[in-house]
Write a structure and sequence with these properties.
With 281 residues, the chain is an alpha+beta fold. Helices cover 34% and strands 26% of the residues. The chain has 8 helices and 14 strands. A 7-stranded mixed β-sheet has the order 3-4-5-6-7-8-9, with helices on both faces. Strands 11-10-12-14-13 form a 5-stranded mixed β-sheet, sandwiched between helices. The protein has a two-stranded antiparallel sheet with strand order 1-2. Helix 6 packs parallel to helix 7.
Length: 281
């Protein structure tokens, strides 16, 4: 629990592992017991057949909302399912109170189909600045943690994004065509060129982890929901990578970004991808 006059940095110095434990407990209590065990009535559509929500999403978010708010009094929680129920909840990102940004099951489609490629994402921000993040893939037994100015780790070992191998195709994960407008599809076409190996993304959180560990060179995403990007963007930053929108500015979790945007292992790669996105538009 945060003490009187304690800064966010001081809170994080004492509670990074406590947040990790809360994330692990939420997954153990509400997500993994339902993995490959979902009944038909536990899965619903939101905006359409590609936008799914399950009882695991709802219950894990409730678990985390209670645990995180209690850990940091005065903080607010912006969770994917809460925002779906009440879009005004998202406005907390614009305020000065500390904000927990939660995606209880990132990669719900994979989760529903029994694919282990999903994760739980939690980030802590204040005043639009990301301060810490947790990316937990329970079915893969992976936990990545980032704290601004203190680096990023995967299962306790330091993460370094590095740079792509010169002369090899640039590996880029892009927005799935099901989730893009015609204009965004046109921009993303710029990546389908010689020297680039582009493919549709899976769980955004796990794609960011792949960039942070150097297994993927870049992402190119066309939507800006903070719960999908906040944790991963800080993870990549603290691993030495960067992010840029199509106008060459850093991505803002508060919104209003020029899309698509990229997150990449290094500055040169980010600028190369932004150039290709512009050429494709």
């Amino acid at each position: 629990m945060i003490e009187d006059n304690e800064t966010i940095d001081e809170f994080l110095a004492r509670h990074v592992t406590d947040v990790e434990e809360a994330v692990r407990k939420a997954a153990a209590a509400e997500i993994m017991p339902r993995f490959r065990q979902l009944a038909a009535h536990e899965v619903d559509q939101k905006s359409g057949p590609h936008d799914l929500v399950t009882d695991a999403d709802r219950k894990a978010e409730l678990y985390l909302t209670e645990a995180l708010a209690a850990m940091l009094p005065g903080s607010v929680v912006v969770g994917e399912e809460a925002v779906h129920a009440n879009p005004a909840t998202y406005e907390a990102l614009q305020g000065e109170a500390p904000v927990w940004i939660v995606d209880p099951v990132d990669g719900t489609r994979q989760f529903v189909h029994g694919d282990p490629g999903f994760c739980t994402l939690v980030a802590l921000a204040q005043g639009g600045v990301l301060r810490a993040s947790w990316t937990y893939a329970p079915a893969l037994d992976l936990i990545a943690v980032a704290v601004r100015g203190r680096g990023a780790t995967l299962d306790g070992a330091p993460l370094r994004a590095g740079s792509p191998v010169p002369g090899e195709d640039l590996r880029v994960a892009t927005s799935h065509p099901d989730y893009t407008t015609d204009e965004q599809k046109q921009a993303l076409l710029g990546l389908y060129t010689d020297g680039v190996a582009a493919r549709p993304c899976g769980s955004a959180g796990l794609e960011y982890l792949a960039v942070a560990r150097g297994a993927l060179d870049s992402t190119a995403f066309s939507w800006e929901a903070a719960w999908d990007h906040a944790a991963g963007i800080l993870l990549v930053e603290e691993a030495g990578g960067t992010h840029l929108t199509r106008t060459g500015e850093p991505f803002r979790i508060t919104g209003g970004n020029a899309l698509p945007f990229t997150t990449a292992r290094d500055e040169a790669t980010a600028r190369r991808v932004v150039g290709l996105l512009s050429d494709g538009a």
